[in-house]
Amino acid sequence: FNPMKRNRGGERDLDHIILAAIHGMEKAMLAYPIKVGIIICFDRTFDEKLNAILAKKAIKYARLNNMPFLGLCLGMQCAVIEFARNVCGLKEANSTEFRPKTKYPVISLLEEQRHVKDMGGTMRLGAYPCKIKKGTLAHFAYLASRWGKQNKKGDILVQERHRHRYELNNEFRKDLEKKGLIMSGINPERDLVELIELKNHPF
């Protein structure tokens, strides 16, 4: 769900909506023998402050409380930002999409696009190859699905749909990895990070 769209134009407190959803999920897990989760949608039509609330209340909560979290596209990018700020100590980490002159651009445009003024036709669109790292949750998940076929070396190469132009900035890759962020999926053509996960985290 997107809690921002339940905010009724500011009539209800956004923090309350997010926390109420998380607490409701926890109660459901205690009351019933099932695993439940929440899908929280980030939205590029909202400003940085609103998406920052989601990152703080949802992504950080999931990381600290060992709860499964799946972030797609902007969701993954916000997860990188949250990790950089709160684990790596880069308090001003951000995406250049939200803050072009951020001190720590952990998410940014590709190098060749940073000085392009007319951004039309610059998105990565359609299917791109992604090599899945052995021993990761992503490797296990793809192997268990009909899409995950290994070659003789045990590698899994999949094709995933894209519709974006901002990427994890490889200049910060080593710093993120040193603190425990696993780059579990890499585009072999451009050496771009496609999938991330945390060590010893359920998902």
Walk me through the topology:
Blueprint: H1 14-31, H2 48-64, H3 74-86, E1 93-95, E2 104-109, E3 124-132, H4 137-144, E4 156-164, E5 166-168, H5 173-178, E6 181-187, E7 192-198
Parallel strand pairs: 1-2
Antiparallel strand pairs: 2-5, 3-4, 3-6, 6-7
Helix pairs in contact: 1-2, 2-3
Folded structure, characterized:
- There is one protein chain.
- A hairpin with a 4-residue loop joins strand 6 and strand 7.
- This protein has a four-stranded antiparallel beta sheet, sandwiched between helices. Strands 1-2-5 form a three-stranded mixed beta sheet, covered by helices on one side.
- It has helices spanning 14-31, 48-64, 74-86, 137-144, 173-178, and strands spanning 93-95, 104-109, 124-132, 156-164, 166-168, 181-187, 192-198.
- The radius of gyration is 18 Å and the shape is globular.
- The protein has 203 residues and is an alpha+beta fold.
- Helix content is 31%, strand content 22%.
- Mean pLDDT is 78; it is low at 1-12.
